[in-house]
Amino acid sequence: MKCTTTYTPQLPIMNSGNHTALLSGQVTAGNIISGRFLSEIQALELVLAFLFFMSIHSLRQKKTHGLPIWPLVGMLPSLIIAVRSNIYEWITTVLDRQNGTFTFKGPWLSNLNCVVTADPRNIEHLLKTKFPNFPKGEYFQNAARDLLGEGIFNADDDTWRRQRRTASLEFHSAGFRQMTVGSLIDLVHSRLLPVLEDFAKNRVSLDLQDVLLRLTFDNVCMIAFGVDPGCLSLGLPVIPFARSFEDATEATTLRFVTPTILWKAMRFLNVGPERKLKRSITGVDQFADEVIRTRKKEIELDNSEKTSRSDLLTIFMRLNDEDGKPFSDKFLRDICVNFILAGRDTSSVALAWFFWLLGQNPAVEERIMMEICSILRERESSEGNIPVVFRPEEVKRMDYLQAALSEALRLYPSVPVDHKEVVEDDIFPDGTILKKGTKVVYAIYAMGRMESIWGRDCKDFKPERWLRDGRYTSESAYKFTAFNGGPRLCLGKDFAYYQMKFVAASIIYRYRVKVLENFPVEPKLALTMYMKYGLKVMLYKRDES
Prior knowledge:
Elements: E1 12-13, E2 21-22, H1 34-65, H2 76-84, H3 87-97, E3 101-104, E4 114-117, H4 120-129, H5 137-148, H6 157-171, H7 174-202, E5 206-207, H8 208-224, H9 240-255, H10 260-269, H11 272-301, H12 305-308, H13 312-317, H14 329-360, H15 362-376, H16 392-396, H17 399-411, E6 417-421, E7 426-427, E8 433-434, E9 439-443, H18 444-447, H19 451-454, E10 467-468, E11 471-472, H20 493-508, E12 511-515, E13 536-541
Parallel strand pairs: 4-9
Antiparallel strand pairs: 1-2, 3-4, 5-13, 6-9, 7-8, 10-11, 12-13
């Protein structure tokens, strides 16, 4: 028998102050659904009321914090927009509105919540005063572990202290300094200048950022591994290790602006940036493993290698871990990769921004040239036509050049933001409450653009702010944090300045560097402040007179 059911729709009526009422209707076949329907309508009302409340709350947040906090996703939409334009300027704008510190709210159940600060008092508190309470932390270490492993820039506690102590002893040794200065002179005069001469002679543009990255990559590989990858040579060959390293740093950066559950899912599925990261780290590991195997064989065949070499890899191969055993190949790889990251990108990108700023400030370039010529005039005239190679004592006296480089680093720090994590509940000097596990981001880029720190001319390129009676004078590490501060102050700071001054002086003395007209220059989202499109320039040889 065929059963027929007749149903007359029941429409909800919203009565003020009452629950939903139902119009009477006809239901047959023994089903009474009005009670269940009523419950569904009530649940829908609650959801709509919640969303309405959260929307009003978001609008209020926009008025008080300058950023909307949306239901479920927090401030993520604002962050996505910032990533697609210039995230560093976005952070600067928000911090400026909030007197130097604000709290970023990430999506619900994500771990993107953090306190962002550019207040020098807070920076000193976390880098020095309460240093043990602000390690790198699990969030940073998990995101960077595939690339940096347990190396010095991703390590905390005893692992970090042991590496820093060993590296510090080596960095301050006479042999190490002699090796670094010698390798730099050789790279500049046998490779950099011939490459620049080739481009200038053929009157074609070059990507100066790429050339500088190749220079510092070769230099730091000599320091870290004791090998020469040969990135900087005529023709600018593609070096697989260099490409893999750059791709790995870019993909790692994306993890810091992506909810952990999302990038871990992509890693599991081997898709998106995680696929690129996996492939690039394989290239980095292959290079490092080959160098480590080769070095071990060299040391076994000729024990004199232990004393004749002063690169970091050989130094750590001489040592044992806390159990008295030689360091593992993985640990040696991590140490070297960390120092390459620090030594390759920081100086080269700083020099790229420096030359771009010189192009906009020709008076600064002229004053640097006057300083260089003044120093060279003090040389004995008997040197004749010997090519100029700047001596260490001459480079040290280039105060205005160092001031200009510091000013470039103030405006475009090589590491634009850095990260810490709170171990125990704390309070910043500005009154911000920090709960255990809170992530703290200190915005180094934004610090250089704060009137409260540098005055009304904070956005101007003004090397004179670093001079006292004509001599270069450094600023507090908690006001100028380009080289970090406190116990983690950059070990290579002195060499970085020497390297940048030597390279800059060698180029400026010989060439006028002109950025191509209308060439787009903006920072790229990465661990270090690359120029997104490089720096295309033309080189014009100076009149030798």
